[in-house]
Amino acid sequence: MGSCICNPLSASRHLLLTESNSPKLPHSKRRASTVVAYYGLKTPPYKLDALEPYMSKRTLEMHWGEHHRDYVECLNKDLDKSDLFYGYPMDELIKFTYNNGNPLPEFKNAAQVWNHDFFWESMQPGGGDMPKFGVLEQIEKDFGSFTNFREKFIEAALTLFGSGWVWLVLKREERRLEVIKTSNAISPLVWDDIPIISLDMWEHAYYLDYKNDKAKYVNVFMNHLVSWNAAMSRMARAEAFVNLGEPKIPVA
Fold first, then answer.
1. Where is the Manganese/iron superoxide dismutase N-terminal domain (predicted)?
2. Cα 183 from chain centroid?
3. CATH architecture of 57-242
């Protein structure tokens, strides 16, 4: 940790930094300014102890405070080498650097920064239980029942080989919800899917709290952590791009 150095900024979007290489020289003799775009470490939408006892403060301090921070710092170090990606929103940076399945060096850190931000926002204190209103209706429409969806999501998590992520996504062309799993840093954004919720299945996401008991971790996520409020808001935004017909998803 800490091997990558970046300018510590608090926002998760691009910020402009301009730096003259020789500020004391007359203007006519100055070298061209370097323009660099940095990303910052975004804070989870709750205090680090707010998910206890289901996800400990110690896990958040390590997972968000160390692993996630390292991805941000390494991404900024990558971007510092060139202004090629200046001005890219994070989702577009991910799609571009995925390079049609031949990822560029910047892809892993960019995708992991976005994936982690999305994961923190997929949880909430007092989460779990069942979704309500249109989200539940859409799940029942596409999976047959909430129970079927829950079983499919848990099965995907427990059969994921190695490190990766499990997602509930909205498929644009099919206009339906699906559960998918991705390896390593891959995000559904690269296939133009619209993520609704995600679960981090890298070992560092659960080991401090659950050791090797992945099944307990996944079930606790579904029972006590997943934010169906976030899912409802994301589905409402998704309807601006995908006509789902009935049921209509209300804005949270």
1. 39-123
2. 14
3. 3-Layer(bab) Sandwich (3.55)
* Full-model pTM: 0.84
Name the residue type at position 122: S
Distances (CA, A) of 93 to 8, 14, 99, 145, 200: 20, 11, 10, 36, 21
| Helix, strand, coil percent content, the chain, rounded in steps of 5 | 45, 15, 40
Residue 32 pLDDT exceeds 50: no
Question: In the chain, what are the domain boundaries?
Answer: 57-242
- The more confidently predicted of residues 38 and 191 is 191
How do 164-171 and 176-183 pair as beta strands? antiparallel
Is 224 annotated in a binding site? The answer is no
Q: Is 142 annotated as a binding residue?
A: no
Q: Residues for the chain: how many in total?
A: 252
Closest CA to 70 of 36, 103, 95, 39: 39
63 is in an annotated binding site: yes
Sheet holding 176-183, edge to edge: 176-183, 164-171, 194-200
- At 190-215, the pLDDT tens digits run 999 999 999 999 999 999 999 999 99
